[in-house]
# Entry
Amino acid sequence: MSSYRINHLDQLESEAIFVLREVAAQFDNPVMLFSGGKDSIVMAHLAFKAFHPARLPFPLLHVDTGHNFPETIEYRDQFVSEIDARLVIALVQDSIDKGRVVEETGPLASRNSLQTVTLLDALEDGQYDSAIGGGRRDEEKARAKERFFSHRDGFGQWDPKNQRPELWNIFNGRKNHGEHFRVFPLSNWTEMDIWQYIKRENIEIPSLYFSHDREVFERSGTLIAVSDHVHVQENENVKTRKVRFRTIGDATCTGAIESESNTLDQIISEVAAARQTERGTREDDRRTETSMEDRKKEGYF
Amino acid sequence: MKKNLSQKDNYLDMDLLRFTTAGSVDDGKSTLIGRLLYDSKNIFEDQIKAIEESSKRRGDDNVNLALLTDGLKAEREQGITIDVAYRYFATPKRKFIIADTPGHIQYTRNMVTGASTANLAIILVDARKGIVEQTCRHAFIANLLRIQHVIVAINKMDLVDFSEEAYEEIVEEFKSFSSRLDNLIDVTFIPISALHGDNVVDKSENIDWYSGPTLLYQLETVYIGSDHNHVKARFPVQWVIRPHSDEHHDFRGYAGRVAGGVFKPGDEVQVLPSGFTSKIDSIHTADGKSSEAFAPVSCSIILEDEIDISRGDMIVKNNNPPEKGQDIEAMLCWFSDKKMIIRGKYVIRHTSKEIKAIVTDLQYKININTLRKVEDDKEFGLNEIGRVCIRTSSPIFYDSYNNNRTTGSFVLIDEQTNETVAAGMIS
# Structure
């Protein structure tokens, strides 16, 4: 092997850093979405590297459904202070109070779909012309064709048939007034790459990702954690089990998996042996066969 | 250090191979990708369950592996793939990124896009039909985009009774027409059946006369270490890092991704376009100082002297500078419904530079089915490929595309719509 070889993690890191620097250079007012989940943590870590020793040239934006696991918020605040970033919080509750959205009712209510409106409002309020997200192409079918620089029209909508071709590492971020871009520096990463990188870089992640005891119940094949934000129905059996989360989203629709994995090595082995995609635990994707594609067109990340 | 790594830690240090797949309609490309993912155990239970249900609904006899890769609702309804889709899989030996591109004539643009980042191309040939126009087109595009490694997968061998003769005929035919395609330096022919899995991941018992590698084995072992130019040092500046903090008051790092060659502290360098020379003081990544940086590593470079450098400038070594000029000749692939306007103004994006440009002439077009030049037709539209002359509003610093994929490539952008209308490879 030639001595000028770089391994897959270095290649993905170099590519993501390149994309992040392009965002800083091509846009006037970017913002980086930060949910406290592992993908956004890796993305913010890469941004820290891309501009070190300067501060991030853009703020982090958390769209907060109010239905969080407390561990996520604790982690978020600590992480943001460690990398010395600016944090902007957009509350779904504010959108509800302003009458911008109507909260779902009933036992299966979730604020997940309301986030889109809060996000678009926050982008408009902040006059952001580009929003950097942690989406990966391997997550879901509709994302396999997503660009690094994804153009959105004046309504924040994504038109899968009207996206710019991306060749080599040339990204075209030119736009008209009122239009903006979503940028996905982790496009080429897989779930496994994310875990391997977290291990290699020794990045601290929320405790929710590791095995712990938690009260859960089963709903359509998914383990949902008991919290103030979910209504346990009569036929649903609450039990304490050893679980961890593969993704961290809104507490009402993110499922846990039974797991004994306490360390990154154990998680990596578990991911390697997994027989379900990570979004297999996301109730929101299963509502219809094309639910991700439909939500994306409306402006979901 | 390296030899102490456990088996598990080796997973942190794998090669990455990017490849593109091209085939005509019904050559079985989606089935092949589905088979590759399925047999290498990269498909999850919930994905299998979803396609089993879809196959049943559609009335397919078997589980239709092609459904694994058919992405968007619109194209599943039409039963065709309409855009480049990226797929990911891994084996214990390598990680793979597939740029899955459709094969229709109207989608040359997608094939070019998928090919632009690929180290390897799989060209699918239907064993019953042999080399057809689209095969030539795929080979031509692989050559044009300088994909050095090509696998010609001769598919549907089950439908020609696994005949060695049929296979040999196709091999000879491909060799005879591709002899003109100089960039294809490594071509491997593999007889397969994607539908039944012969020679995709597992060796075929039906094709006992073939002693070469399976498709996956070839993907896992092809040597890709020499795909970057490590001789001519090129560093397009993307961004200037200036912390403005007490701790790093004087820090001025030129951030970018090495596009060629090797940079080391102490190297004499020249900054273009100013021509000022200096020495590299240090090379930084967020993990600290580096002793060297080579393509395609992202880093920041600090020079010994204070020179005014900004985005769009290029740091190079003195011994082999790039070409410099305002007039370039290039092979161009047109991507827009709106035809190219000769003497029309466009924006050219080349490395980190964006300036105005005029296409001054279309020298010839190429009929990509026959590979013949067409010189008398000056209309240049969607999916056409031709050779053009371009004048830029200020000098650019470039290499030929065959020498350097990064400093030899560019895109043209329509100033009114901001669309990317063409991709170019400098001659």
About this structure: Residues 256 and 353 of chain B are 12 Å apart (CA to CA).
